[in-house]
Write a structure and sequence with these properties.
- The protein has about 120 residues and is mainly α.
- The protein has five helices and two strands, in the order ββααααα.
- It has a two-stranded antiparallel ribbon.
- It is elongated and about 45 Å long.
């Protein structure tokens, strides 16, 4: 069973509306601390902190999705990131592909540039 909550932080010119909705797929596996910080900040009303964490999450997801589309699929790319953080669960099931060592190095370098391994 899966649970979904969507997070949407809106700021309109004449209305400040904030909704807590959150959906996680594989990102919970490699960004759990960030996700928990985002939710905790929102729950205590720290909208700026929750936005900061949301922007971090979006930066990592943009990189993740680009690599997933171009190189290994969602499972292959997610498993490459999991391996980078010390959790090697082996190759993805077909038809997903394993990300090559060279591509994994590029992915890791991009994630390092945004600070992923410091705030994941």
């Amino acid at each position: 069973m899966y649970s979904c909550r969507w997070t949407i932080l809106l700021k309109l010119p004449h209305l400040n509306v904030t909704l807590l909705l959150f959906a996680g797929v594989s990102t919970y596996n490699y960004m759990p601390e960030l996700t928990l910080r985002l939710i905790a900040a929102f729950e205590v009303g720290d909208i700026e902190k929750s936005r900061e964490e949301q922007y971090r999450s979006q930066a990592a997801i943009k990189i993740f999705m680009r690599y997933a589309k171009q190189h290994g699929g969602i499972a292959g790319t997610g498993k490459a990131i999991m391996k980078m953080i010390g959790l090697d669960f082996g190759p993805p099931r077909p038809p997903e592909k394993t990300v090559s060592a060279g591509v994994a190095k590029q992915l890791q370098a991009e994630l390092e540039l945004i600070g992923f391994f410091k705030w994941k």
